[in-house]
Amino acid sequence: MNQKVLHIGIISYEDYKKRSLAIARGEYRPQPDEPKIWFESLQSMAQILSNENQLLLKTIMERKPESLKELEAATGRSSSNLSRTLKTMARFGIVKMEKLQRNIKPVVEATNFTVQFGLYANRDSEEGVDTVGN
User: Fold this and answer.
1) Domain count of the chain?
2) CA distance 126 to 18
3) How does DSSP classify residue 5?
4) Please, which residues bridge with residue 112 across strands?
5) Paired sense of beta strands 112-117 and 95-100, if any
6) Domain holding 25: CATH number?
7) Whole-prediction pTM value?
8) Contact present, 69 and 79 (Cβ < 8 Å)
9) Which DSSP helix (H) or strand (E) runs through 7?
10) What pLDDT digit, counting tens, does each position of 27-74 carry?
11) Is residue 35 part of a domain?
12) Which of 58, 79, 89, 96 is deepest in the core (most CB within 10 A)?
């Protein structure tokens, strides 16, 4: 099986903003191995990569459902819950949603995750408000 590693970073909203502005001004160039996806806290990352959602990814990989209806039957989760969770995961590049005729087929894109802390670390802004997942 083809494994894709998704590089995730944890950074405060304030520091993420500073980083983005530095990139836009050409003052900072992200390195190829730096995360492409950023969360403001471990808690916000944990909401997306919870045990329940990891099990969902494993189910998709093993069963290869052709539709959300098939995935609903395999997991026992409601279609609205699955749809919302998968849309969020798709925003982060963890899954992709392929349209097949009238069905939407979920496909796992990322099988492994690395987490990086400390870029532009500012200890004063650790207690930020979560913005990911809202």
Assistant:
1) 1
2) 15
3) E
4) 5
5) unpaired
6) 1.10.10.10
7) 0.76
8) yes
9) strand 5-10
10) 999 988 889 889 999 899 999 999 999 999 999 999 999 999 999 999
11) yes
12) 89
